[in-house]
Amino acid sequence: MVVVRTLLIVGALLLVAAVLGLLDHSATAIWILITGLCSVIFYNTVYVARLHHWAGLPRNRELPLGIGVWGQTLDRISRFMRQDAIERSETAAELERLHAAVDLLPDGLVVLDRFDHVQWSNRAAQRIHGIFGTRRPIDHFVRQPEFLDYLRANDFSEAVALSLPGQPGRVFAMKIEPTVDAFRLLITRDITEANLLEQVRRDFVANVSHEIRTPLTVVSGFVETLMEIEMPPQEQMRCLELIKRQTVTMERLVEDLLTLSSLESANLQAEATDVAIGPMLQTLAADSRVFSAGRHKIDVTVDAAESVRGVSNELDSAIRNLLTNAVRYTPEGGSITASWRVVDGEGVLAVTDTGIGIAAEHLPRLTERFYRVDRGRSREMGGTGLGLAIVKHVAQRHQARLEIDSRVGAGSTFRLHFPRSLVVMPTRSKPPVIIADAHADADAGAGDGADRTRSVLPST
Description:
The protein contains twelve helices and 14 strands. With 460 residues, the protein is of the alpha+beta class. Helix 6 (192-228) packs antiparallel against helix 7 and helix 7 packs parallel to helix 12 (387-397).
């Protein structure tokens, strides 16, 4: 447009000069032509110079104003620049939001060029690897031999798992993802919890296999013996009794596993009712006396009429396991006391025995599945190794706190502390009731607790 208009002006000047020449005004025509051409050249030269000056630093200098044909041209450039500035601003804001979102990711992200130099990293990568700045080789920050071998092998189909010096006790999976251009994306993910869960799964499968294999081996051996060897009826009966005992062990193991599974999947709120702990303790104590066969003195003390909001069969299972363990690990002639009371609005259910006790180093792991202080003694007593794990899960589902107070050779006390929100007052006020057997001797074997070892397991 500028060229067309300039040509039109020059053409007009030539036309005027030609007309004046025909009218015998040659000198005037030449001066008009020269002056007009010089004006056009000067006008365009000035704006070309201004435009050239502005183009040297377009972001720091104002676009010059123009008149005539240059005014329209510069207006177009100005509109284009305004539109470009808006688009750049929107793009920058979008990138800022994207970077902010990526910085919130727990995984570390690092962009590498073809020379494995850091081009960009998010906040997680900076925290995990200590990355700062850009244009530095990644091996300045990650120097583990396993990662360097992975980087040089140029085979990124699998991730490499390793520990990092700046993150003690954690395990990270590092994987490089190639992109369509020369850049590559390094992803660092914390897999510590996943590894622990996988280890728990492997240990669980191994423990279940071991616990089942032991009685199966006994059953299989005796069955083969009965099939291949003729023996007196008394010997046959002894073998059958041993087979029955081992099948009962396997049945108990399966039942405990099913109980644990139901505790982990059931909905407490949908099944909760008001459970009277006092009568439940009395019933379970009677069952424990049968299990003890007169070898122990088992007392029950109920100092509160309040109930607990919860699932009856789960609370029954927890208390039954505590009483059964107390019977198993208390020598003949020892005493066991189960009690229920309310202290400052909190329900406290306790089972105390005068048994063999538990060393302090075992208390933190006591509620793990299949954890045994003494494997040989536990099998001899007939335990499955899941009783306290069931108690822990019941406590968690009822927002209760499990507290273990024990001393080797002096017995143990297991307490379940139920929160105020789950303790329910009776519909009719009743005086405190004390329920005990003929040998009632509350708190027998509890000791003064001064040198006892205590463990408190949280409710979550």
